[in-house]
Prior knowledge:
heterodimer; A: two-stranded antiparallel sheet; B: 417 residues; Rossmann fold; 2 domains; 14 strands; 38% helix
Amino acid sequence: MSAPSSPVPAPLGSRVPLAGLAVALGALAFAVLPLLVPTYQVSILTEILIFAVLAMAVDVLAGFTGRTPLCHGAIFGVATYVVVYWSQQGGAPVTGVLLAVAAATLVAAIFGLLAIRTSGVYFLLLTLALGMIVWGVCLRWTSVTGGENGLRGTVRPELLAGHLPFYYAVFAVVGIITCVMWRFVRSPFGLTLRGIRDSESRMRALGYNVSLHLFLAFTISGFFAGLAGALYAMFNDFVSPSTVALSQSVEGLLMAITGGIGTLFGAFIGAAAIIGLENFVSQYTERWQSVLGLMFILIMIFAPQGVIGRVRDLLTRRR
Amino acid sequence: MDRRTFLKTSVAAAAAGAVAMPHVARAQGGPIRIGLMAPLTGVVAAGGREMVDGFNMYWEEHGNEVAGRKVEVIVEDDAANPDTALQKARRLVEQANVSMLFGNLLANTGLAVANYVKGNGMPYFIPIIAADDLTQRNRIKNVIRVAGYTASQFPRPLADWALKQGYKKVATISQDYTFGHEQCGGFCQTFTEGGGKVLGQFWHPLNTSDFSPYLGQLANLGADVVFAMETGADATRLMQQYANFGLKGQIPLIGAMNMTDQSVIRTMGDEVDGVVVAAHFAEGSPAPVTQSFVAAYGKKFGKLPSLYGFSMYSGAMWVDEALKSIKGNAEDRDAFLASVMKTDLTGSPLGQTVKMDDYGNPIYDVHIRKVVKNKDGKYWNEPIANYPNVSQFWKYDPVTYMKQPPYSRDFQGIKKS
């Protein structure tokens, strides 16, 4: 599944006020909502923000670079493991987070070196295999990772122990990350990535070092996935192989696709839709996974470009 | 909730843009809410279903009430995934306002939830989760194994029994994860300390479809007895292939109780005949309480009860007794937990009194049980020997025992001779 290559939605341009308004409204909703709902929903909102970062990281590659990765759950989980392991060893949370993000970035760099040689379905399969290696290591290296049982720690600093303080800390961090990522995809570097997505050979002919760009994009995307993973460690105080499993990578990708691939902000809509539905539907039926599956099929049929993509299309058509 | 209300709620919630259910305030004297988590989807869904059945069966038999308060059981699917389990635990505690959590099947889901309740003091009862350290080195005060057991608890009397049968050399085969390491460790430690020898240990990944590489080596070690620790489909395949390879009848097969649990042998044939394991519960025990439970369970669900059904049923009974003695005041957590620790389980299908040790794990009379055909021609487990008062620490002093490292692939407590 490659990114929508044809008519690239003109970079905002005429729609700036409208798009800006939507983003502001979204940010406002995330800022105010936690004050109105009970604590359990606050924890769901926290999770949505964290996973939106993972989905944005996936989107950088899948949407802006035209390479769909299936290993970002694993990169995300590496950071989670490092944070929890570090706290279990009695280390300070801040150092743990720094180490975790460094570890995730390193893993992403190594994966990047191997994966950028391929594209299309081969890229998909190679990243899938790389992700599975991480999962296998986490499952078998029992003395460090706790194997199947995983690791437990008390990661969250005392100051952020409550639901609301932690939520707003995450909100602030995610806000900064989002701004940085938005700048990143709109920078000349990001535009080059889009160029590579649309025509690799042309970019090469223009004199761009395509491999280097791909490598950097992969590593940077891994860096953001690592940040999300570190936040997730603080959220859960727990990590097990299911955090680095394939399903995690797939979930990140599905969120990006649901929201709209190549839209960045779609990640928030995708994360909210999937995590929200998971929690909402499972209250009523144990077949909630079927409901989710059905929803994905419907999205693929009626809005293959994702929620934001669909809205954009409708707005364009109206003009 | 019927479909129409479901639709209405969905629409309302969607319109509000929130995923909220109305926040229910806790009311003293109102119903006691119990959050029950079980894997209803995923690889161990069959066991999870039986957990819910056993638990509900108890409350239905007892009019869904305790000490004049209604009991409301809220079931959540943990999908056999620790992250999901954690999320569901949060929902039950923070949104559904339960007074206690119950259940989970896989050790990793239980450990995740235990870590969560450690922070908020919510009573959490685990009749199925057997991870040793939850009631040993990393004990959490509000996590209690009502009607449950630790993994290494029952293989120890089995090792003692095996030595008494004259078996001196054992080979073990086990699933390669903590639950397997712990059960094998319990067996090997007692077996070697009693003068036996471990000739070899085989660890295979979960969901092994072909056991021939292991069985070939097992056959050539010259062991007197083989100890196997298998759950679910692995147990089925191991026992089938053990028979197909002609090892059955040649080297006796003994093992961990999960291997011959009804959830496994209920669909199997002669290959399970004569396998010996140790457990607190044996559905073929002649005790009248056991037989009436087996009959009632059979009448309701059309099958013999498994460990899952039995444990949840007895766990519910334990908490029921404890609540009665404090007049159903589940909101006073300290009194509630103390009462659970003090309560002796008397009327359970075990037909014996069960006490709790100081670490929140029950002390049982353990049956050495053998798989035989009952009068209906179905295989079940009948007790052939009994070990009274077996605690999770066997004959060791708890404090000294907990100084040794937890069992793992590398540490099996094997005494060098």
